[in-house]
Amino acid sequence: MSGPQVAIDLGRIERNARTVVERCAQSGIKVFGVTKGMCGMPQVARAMLRGGVAGIAESRFENIRRLRDSGINAPIMLLRSPPIARVEEVVRTVDISLQSELSIIREIARIAERMGRVHDIMLMVDLGDLREGIWPNDLVPTVEQILEMKGVRIAGIGTNLGCFGAILPTEENLGQLVAHAYKIERLSGKSLDWISGGASSSLPLLLEGRLPAGINNLRVGEAILQGGLETFRDPPWEALELDACRLTADIIEVKKKPSRPIGQSGYDAFGNQPVFPDEGDRLRAIANIGREDVLVEGLMPIAKGVRVLGASSDHLLLDVQDADPPPVVGGRLAFRMSYGAMLLAMTSEYVEKAPMHDVEDYSGRKMVSISAEPSAAGILAREATGARLEAMNFDVVELADAERPPSGLIRLTAGADRRIAHTALAATARATHSFGLIWIDSIAALMPEEIEGIDLPEASVLARMLGLDHKPGALQPQLSPENIVIVGLRHADPAEARVLADSRVSAFTMTDIDATGMGEVMREAIHIASSGTQGFHVAYAPEVTEFAGWAAGSGGLTVRETHQAMEAVALSGGLLSMSVSGFTADLEPRIATDAVSFVMSAFGKRIL
Ligand SMILES: *Cc1c(COP(=O)(O)O)cnc(C)c1O
Fold first, then answer.
1. Structural domains of the chain, with CATH
2. Which residues form the signal peptide (predicted)?
3. Chain mean position to CA 218
4. Which residue has the higher pLDDT, 401 or 488?
5. Cα-flanking dihedrals φ and ψ of residue 298, to 5°?
């Protein structure tokens, strides 16, 4: 790890979501989890969904596309009205959108009708915060006009408070919202699905038991992502966990210096004339993050005795005189962030985003279960695969198909062709809530074309897993294209290259590997596959490796590079399952022998 990083603890996000969802459920309220503070990271959305949110709410199209591309098919709410030019995308991709302008609603209705759809809208009412919303006096005439439109349905009514005008939600203003809702219901003769009483800032009212009856939806971001740090200042909601997102940065200088600058003072880099109290000589540290990456005023050092003094565009200045132990150059400092600081850090391309899970403790004995198609079973037996794994301290266990594998168990599957990877991954998908895939192969298997009479052509296996062929067998939501990486690619049909470019799958070609080296490629590949997942599957096809005199592997990885890739897998500790294809009766024995020793390397075989 180097450079500034936002570490995102998905376990905390899931637990915070569950805390909010369960409390809201007691009052008949369904929660939409707001991911805009996290740039629509699919891992975050999935953590919220595991925590029980009814849907995801987002303000930006880029983020919504990212969520949908990751196979998240939960209801998505668009939090911000679209520009006219993007109305079609709204109708196509989101289930409900917040609206307050008649002209845009009219355009939505027109386009939805043309597409043969009815789009659900939530009408926003301005109760005094002066951001978006219909002014209450205009509500009835607006609703009357919308009721004439066939392409939209008023699915709900909502309000937004505490954003621009810093107006607090109260029994009174939210009571007005409920009254407006009943008025709309009388007018339309239909009941509304949603009366949406705001965001995190409405939760304190709920906990005090003063949220007006009738409200049945909240759109919650901050309380889940930040543990209510800003929503619940005093008193905090103890059940929520802080620090789901933390910023860390490297310390690049530590020196004792005077607390007042020396010389004639002018303006700083941002046009201000700062004033410095004289506190004598103090130990100061500089961290490698600045105003270009984060809202410095929103940074709260987690270590005691550390104080933010200020920042320029890429230097953060800290007083560390009272820190115990004192920070050292090369160390790192961690910060809690305000919502504003988090937003900026998440959108800075200089800050790495690292979603992580609570690491499960796999200590104790390691277990492996082996399954193989008949031709492959012969090869595995000949190579004494089970015995060699036992010699490496694995328990080789039999696992019934339907059985849920114990945690820490790694599954090894071998078969005649690449379709075995689909079988193996489907089992991994049943055993985890999120996993990545390192596809070590000469082809991407993303061919969009179908072949008469073959249910799943080998060249389309990955396309099937991603649901790109619209057939059953997609492995979403557990497997997101953002967590798939191809290593060793050497052939791609133009149509396939297009599919690859449009997907969020990463690929390292032989050219990339020649240029960067296998070590670096695998470091990145493992990072991609483990980012926010519980671990990953490795799918290996012998064609990716160049075995002397074997035409199928010509131009591929060397045997040594293949071992290097597998050793990196073993070291990462992230292997959940592995599949090997190409194990047919006519595979040359020497190639099978090498392929099985690659498996051993992936399971951690070392020379010494
Ligand atoms: C951002 C936003 C929310 C979520 O706000 P939090 O304070 O993060 O809970 C809800 N509704 C709308 C319209 C928003 O823009």
1. 10-226 (3.20.20.10), 245-336 (2.40.37.10), 370-602 (3.40.800.10)
2. none
3. 22
4. 488
5. -100, 15
